Fold:
Amino acid sequence: MAGRIVLLIGVALALVACATLQKNSRISEFDDVILAYRRALLDADYTAVRHFLDPGVSKASDTPVNKLVKVVEFNPTNVDVAEDATKIEQDICLQYYLLNVPRVKTLQYRQVWHYNAEHRLWLLQTPLPNFDQQ
Structure:
């Protein structure tokens, strides 16, 4: 009887450890993705930026990003991670300017990222921000 209890406790601990490792792995993968997303945005590589969008969001997003937009700051100000680390919501503060209007503007918006377990990747569920083109 005692052997069964020890075995059950061992199995339970192994399952908890496995779940924790998966969660940490997903968060680590997100860190890499958000750095790449940030770099693409700061480099004005909007083709690469769109590759981070969930295909459904990408098709529905009708916000054309003008090549005249130059993002100079990308700062997450608040990050909320779901308990199972499959969804991350973050508030973003962007500073940008238009190349033909040298005035820095600030834009705040909320991003929602979802982990696609089947393809093992993070996808942005929210469209690109609507940069003021005026």
